[in-house]
TrEMBL record:
Gene3D superfamilies: Nucleic acid-binding proteins. GO terms for biological process: cytochrome complex assembly; protein-heme linkage. Keywords: Cytochrome c-type biogenesis, Heme, Iron, Membrane, Metal-binding, Transmembrane, Transmembrane helix. This is Cytochrome c-type biogenesis protein CcmE. Its main location: membrane. It comes from Ilumatobacter fluminis. GO terms for cellular component: plasma membrane. The chain crosses the membrane at residues 23-44.
Length: 162
């Protein structure tokens, strides 16, 4: 048979009270963990740019007009207009076209009829893509303008080695 009487202290005092849990530190730690999780989730969500072809906008998951995107297409011939430091042009891919407004001059080798990737968001109407960065695709083949100079350099290198 088990003795269920309360235990007493050696000095004859009654049973000791259970120490109370300290809830405040646990609540603070839980609040900090939840806040950290929310911050990391929001940061990761805003850092994601979906990569879409022009014809996938509104069709493929993640290519919605209400999120930040990277859109690939080819700059339409005759569509580039620069005025007041801004540039408007159209990009197309698989017979779908999007109007792009870029605040600035894309510069570099940007021109009509080349593949580009534009970073940005759509305007409130969802009709014009507001680009904040333009990347121009180009060939990875190196073509020298003055082949004879390279041949001369190769000949000099061969002469030097002998």
């Amino acid at each position: 048979m088990t003795d269920l009487t309360p235990r007493t202290q050696p000095d004859g005092a009654g049973p000791t009270a259970k120490p109370r849990r300290k809830w405040l530190p646990m609540v603070l730690i839980a609040a900090v963990l939840v806040a950290g999780g929310v911050i990391v989730t929001q940061f990761l969500r805003s850092a994601i740019d979906y990569y879409c072809n022009v014809d996938e906008i509104g069709e493929r998951s993640g290519c919605d007009t209400d999120s930040r995107l990277r859109i690939q297409g080819v700059v339409d011939k005759g569509s580039v207009e620069s005025a007041g430091g801004d540039t408007n042009f159209d990009i197309s891919f698989n017979e779908a076209t999007v109007a792009v407004y870029y605040d600035g001059d894309p510069g570099g080798i940007f021109k009509e009829c080349i593949p580009v990737v534009v970073h940005g968001t759509f305007d409130e109407a969802g009709t014009t893509f507001l680009g904040d960065r333009v990347e121009v695709k180009h060939s990875d083949e190196y073509v020298s303008v003055n082949d004879e100079r390279l041949d001369e350099a190769d000949d000099l290198a061969v002469d030097c080695a002998t």
